[in-house]
């Protein structure tokens, strides 16, 4: 492995707001402090981060929505892959992935038992950590999808949606996927989506009402707002509504109670015995050992397609641009920032 630099850079939240650019700044810190942690604890490893993944929750994290007790400054991001450069728990050069807070950094200290060992450094692995695990576990463990059911995935061309539609198809379901624009609709067809719905040119509520008269069985919903309102009247008897987020509200400042305005009328649930539940990935950690190998096998065999957004972002200073692209819904698949240029330039 190459020699280590004396300093590294990381993205730090300095004020809590949903505006990622205003919320964060790039700061430089001495690498020796991280090296000392690894030297003092054989369970720790030092990882040179090569690529980081963007998630809608990056905005929520810097906005202070997950834990109101956490106050700035704190490190941003929570998804990265890289290579082990120090520590005895892995061979040097081993590729690993992490979903640890503070992942928007050039170097990161990780507990060896809390990483995903990877066979290589391809960016597609970023698409099956937060996104892939959310899709697989929400559909299989929370919703219990069954062969022959009809599943709606909102935001289906996004990083999580693209995995969710494939998980549902692999389970033998009919899949309806919402997206914005004909390019994204075409992408969904390549993933096997039975009925892409471009919300810019079609009304989802009318599509469901006219084409799926028996109702839909499972909804994988992460948009909220008007999208959710159009779905609710079109649910089938004993259907399951999974709430994984509400990205249409995330751009506004405030905590979840202030920005998340969706209301699910209970009078629509009772007559059809509809089950509505939230899904938060951290509550399903005990199921990771079952889901993770399935996702890795799917990628290695070419059975699971992970689209990496074609926009190119290089260096830690471009993380803010990558987050903004994702937050504006302009991405197709997983938005990734390559950090190798920054690190190599300093060696």
From TrEMBL:
Pfam families: ADH_N (PF08240), ADH_zinc_N (PF00107). This is Enoyl reductase (ER) domain-containing protein. Keywords: Oxidoreductase. Residues 33-337 form the Enoyl reductase (ER) domain. The keyword Methyltransferase does not apply. GO terms for molecular function: oxidoreductase activity. GO terms for cellular component: mitochondrion. It comes from the Eukaryota. The keyword Oxidoreductase applies. PANTHER family: PROSTAGLANDIN REDUCTASE 3, SHORT-CHAIN DEHYDROGENASE/REDUCTASE.
């Amino acid at each position: 492995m190459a020699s280590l630099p004396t300093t590294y850079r990381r993205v730090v939240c300095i004020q809590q707001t949903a505006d990622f650019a205003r919320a964060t700044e790039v700061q430089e810190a001495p690498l020796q402090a991280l090296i000392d942690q690894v030297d003092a604890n054989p369970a720790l490893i030092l990882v040179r981060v090569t690529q980081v993944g963007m998630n809608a929750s990056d905005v929520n994290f810097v906005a202070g929505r997950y834990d109101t007790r956490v106050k700035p400054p704190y490190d941003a991001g929570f998804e990265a892959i890289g290579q082990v450069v120090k520590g005895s728990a892995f061979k040097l050069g081993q590729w690993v992935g992490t979903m640890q807070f503070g992942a928007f950094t050039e170097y990161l200290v990780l507990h060896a038992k809390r990483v995903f060992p990877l066979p290589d450094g391809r960016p597609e692995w970023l698409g099956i950590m937060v996104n892939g695990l959310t899709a697989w576990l929400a559909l299989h463990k929370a919703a219990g999808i069954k062969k022959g059911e009809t599943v709606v995935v909102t935001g289906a061309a996004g990083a999580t949606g693209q995995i969710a539609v494939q998980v549902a198809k692999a389970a033998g379901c009919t899949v309806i996927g919402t997206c914005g624009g004909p390019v994204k609709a075409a992408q969904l067809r390549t993933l096997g989506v039975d009925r892409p719905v471009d919300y810019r040119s079609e009304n989802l509520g009318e599509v469901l009402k006219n084409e799926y008269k028996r109702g839909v069985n499972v909804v994988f919903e992460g948009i909220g707002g008007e999208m959710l309102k159009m779905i609710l009247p079109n649910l089938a008897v004993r259907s399951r509504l999974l709430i994984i987020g509400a990205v249409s509200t995330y751009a506004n400042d405030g905590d979840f109670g202030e920005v998340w305005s969706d209301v699910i009328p209970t009078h629509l649930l009772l007559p059809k015995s509809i089950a509505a539940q939230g899904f938060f990935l951290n509550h399903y950690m005990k199921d990771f050992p079952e889901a993770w190998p399935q996702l890795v096998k799917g990628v290695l065999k070419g059975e699971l397609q992970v689209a990496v957004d074609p926009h190119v972002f290089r260096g830690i200073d471009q993380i803010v641009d990558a987050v903004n692209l994702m937050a504006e819904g302009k991405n197709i698949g997983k938005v990734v920032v390559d950090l190798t240029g920054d690190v190599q330039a300093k060696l």
